[in-house]
Amino acid sequence: MVGRRRELGLSRGTAGPVHQHQHQHHNQNQNQNPHDDGHEAAAVIESDSSPDTDPDEGSLVSLAALAVEKLVSPARGTRQGALLPGVDAHVVRIWGDGVDVVVRTPRDLTGSAPDTYPAERWAAEHAARHGVPTPRVLACEPEFGEAPLMIVEHVTSIDSDRDPWHDLGRLAATLAEVPLDPATAGGPADGDARVPDALLTRFGRDLPEAWRRHLRYGLDSLVPGDRLLGLGVYTEQQRGPLRAALEQLEVESAGWRHGLVHGDLAPRNLVPRGADDPVLIDWGTARTGPVPWLELDRVHRWSALEDLVTVDELRRFADGVGVDLDDALPTLRRLALLHHLDLVRWALERRPDRLAREVEEARRAIARCLR
User: Fold this and answer.
1) Which of 17, 58, 146, 185 has its CA 20 to 30 Å from the CA of residue 322?
2) H or E segment to which residue 21 belongs
3) How much is the pTM?
4) What was the pLDDT predicted at 9?
């Protein structure tokens, strides 16, 4: 989410006795490490939550309990509540008296579009209809008190010997086959409503054309008067090789499939279920675009640029997808270049407070990925 946070206007109410607990939960995010509790927002608008103040735990648990009572199940006995770790959302688990759910409200109301949770719900439910295990969404309200709110079932983890990175790769491959409305993806209709606008880029609803326009924007920006030259993101000597990289990406991506992207395929978002298939949670970064390439791009950047994922883990992910990593690496490097150039341009236009950070990260990406 972007922008400054403000205090949630919490409606006080009761939903039977609610006991509060400190409770750790693996599906929400405290930093950028994909193994731990971390989170990256969709596309080029990434999370930078840094609140001045947050509502206290008691207020958040009370709000969550009230929402569960009003939207899911009236309370007849005692329920327990705990605030869970989270960066982009306040996350509360409510359990007991016949329910076990997770309630999410955004930390940053000023940067929260009213269609954020409906779009997340659409993505999770659409994926579930096509073979991706996801938690059931029980309620989604555009405004509960002063905040949008979503309630999903809590999925209990069961120890498993399965390789999470290979499972995540398999899920990426499954997602790549999920059909979308022909108005946005050019594929066969499957009876679902059109993809929500919140899952699309600013380049339009026709996904292949939107991707072409995205790449053309990047190429057309690499000119002698480019502001990124003045910022020292790249040198004049590097401008030609950067253009060549994006031109090659334009050619090789011309035939790519486009579809639904989770955007954060990390072990922290995978709930093991013993011998059964794991459940994929936290669809807040869902979007549309080239599949499975955007999923591969995110894990590759964790490995190549952020040193958060080992090469072996990246390779196991690629194996799960069904992609030869050695063959894919040149393309993944070009995708990383596009991503970081985009981020600097976004910061210039919309987040000057992020500019220094994005410039530094783009320089690192160019140093490591421009061949």
Assistant:
1) 185
2) strand 18-22
3) 0.82
4) 28
Q: Is residue 12 part of a domain?
A: no
Whether the CA torsion 271, 280, 337, 119 is positive or negative: it is: negative
Q: Residue 242 maps to which CATH number?
A: 3.90.1200.10
Q: What is the number of H-type helices and E-type strands within the chain?
A: 11, 10
Boundary-marking domain end, from 153, 174, 204:
153
237, 274: one domain: yes
Question: What separation in angstroms does the CA of 94 have from each of 67, 71, 120, 329, 359?
Answer: 10, 13, 21, 44, 42
How far apart are the C-alpha atoms of 102 and 120, rounded to whole Å?
Answer: 15
What span, in angstroms and rounded, lies between the C-alpha atoms of 315 and 265?
14
**Which token pair is 64?**
């969550």
Q: What letter does residue 130 receive in the DSSP assignment? A: T
Return the exposure string of 151-186: e unless at least 16 CB atoms fall within 10 Å of the residue's CB, then b.
bbbbbeeeebeebbbbbbbbbbbbbbebbbbeebbe
The mean per-residue pLDDT over the stretch 3-29 comes to: 38
Q: Where are the beta strands (DSSP E) in 74-200?
A: 79-84, 89-96, 99-106, 137-144, 147-153
Task: Tell me, yes or no, whether 168 and 227 share the same domain.
Answer: yes
| 34 pLDDT above the threshold of 90 | no
Question: Which structural domain range is residue 85 located in?
Answer: 18-153
> Which of helix, strand or coil describes residue 163?
coil
- Which range among 32-36, 78-82, 346-350 shows the weakest confidence by mean pLDDT? 32-36
In a domain, 318, yes or no: yes
Query: Using the 8-state DSSP alphabet, how is residue 180 labeled?
Result: -
At 108, is the secondary structure helix, strand, or coil?
Answer: coil
Distances (CA, A) of 165 to 60, 127, 265, 272: 34, 19, 9, 12
Question: What domain count does the chain have?
Answer: 2
Which pLDDT tens digit goes with each residue over 46-61?
A: 334 444 456 788 888 9
Residue that is last in its domain, among 153, 173, 198: 153
Greatest CA span in the chain, whole angstroms? 70
Three-class DSSP category at 119: helix
